[in-house]
Design goal:
about 80% helix, elongated
Length: about 80
């Protein structure tokens, strides 16, 4: 996520609960994925969970980007 996007989130999350919730979800998924990246070996179950988390993170980022596009078009 770009710095510009994170700035928009900080600016608007206080009054946009959906944006705030999506961003928190995105950060939580990112944190969970980091735990897998730090492991030298993943079991088959962990590999499946990692793939599922990656898909969820991508979907949450897509939803975040849709909301941010609104703020890019109408910064007020």
């Amino acid at each position: 996520m770009e710095h510009r996007d994170e700035e928009l989130i900080r600016r608007h999350a206080s009054h946009d609960q959906q944006l705030k919730a999506l961003y928190q979800e995105h950060l939580e998924l990112k944190r969970r994925l980091e735990a897998f990246r730090n492991k030298p070996y993943l079991t088959t179950q962990e590999q499946i969970e990692k793939k599922n988390l990656q898909k969820l993170k991508l979907a949450s980022k897509d939803r975040l980007m849709e909301l941010l596009e609104h703020y890019r078009r109408d910064p007020g």
